[in-house]
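User: Predict the complex with aspartic acid.
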Amino acid sequence: MITVVSLGGTIAMTPSSTGGVTPGLGAADLVAAVPELTDFELTVRSLRSLPSASLGFADLAELHAVVEAELAAGAEGVVVTQGTDTLEETAFFLDLTVRADAPVVVTGAMRPPASPGADGPANLLGAVRLAASPSARGLGTLVLFSDEVHAARLVRKTHTASTGAFESPGFGPLGLLVEQEPRLLTTPGPRARFPIGSRLEDVRVCVVPMALGEDGELLYGVDSRFSGLVLAGVGAGHVPEQVVPVLAELAGTMPVVLASRAGAGSMLTRTYGYPGSERDLIARGLIPSGFLDPYKARILLHLLLADGADRERLRAAFAGFS
Ligand code: ASP
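Assistant: Here is the predicted structure with aspartic acid placed in the model:
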């Protein structure tokens, strides 16, 4: 038995009377639109009906509880459907928190159900096939999109409109659906599990990007409004020299994680030595994010702070992604 949990998104959107498409369909509707799914024993749960930009940490906590409960009740796997805009964040949250090894697969669609060439039905069918496949066990949360299987730890939405909007930059997919059968050729490696702490809805972590000519204006007072900061530095974790003083001060009062806006690759830790380089910033207390992009680093930092992690735990957790 596979459970399909829906959260909204384009895959579930129908034309609205005021123009554009808006979430309207639930999990049962999505399943009913794919005749091939009658081959599977499915349970459906319509949990939210939202555009994915409006999902929040309370929604993720409830989703996590549903996934755990369904797996504990005997589901072989769980498929989550949601909007693609923040799909990588939901998938990474589940990857970090779901205890079981059973497959959890997240998918969505770039074209609404009523549009020509709608991709939702094929993605949903592929996700169910993947969730039902023993080969998907123990790989953490997976993303199935356009016949590609991606690890939640690596995947990003990299296109605003293409049906092939998901990539794992620098790594590629773990495998493919070939004639509808999952063929997994690589694995993402061992997975750390993190508890969901009691402060999940209280913690606030912001992402601040760096750019040419940036003077750090956005960073003043961040520590009075946020619990943690992810800095999306340029290159391998660099900032303009004039931003260093405010960053150094912030790193003394709040956790500051150093990620990169580059889009692929790992943070460096011991290459450049100029003011504002990764060596300089790490020496001033910033925590390098390893291979995590700024948005995944935000999810991990949020989870850790919600569980009351101290600096040492934060460093160790991020080191696990380097
Ligand atoms: N705006 C939509 C959402 O994220 C896009 C999608 O589903 O693809 O809900």
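The chain has a mean pLDDT of 98.
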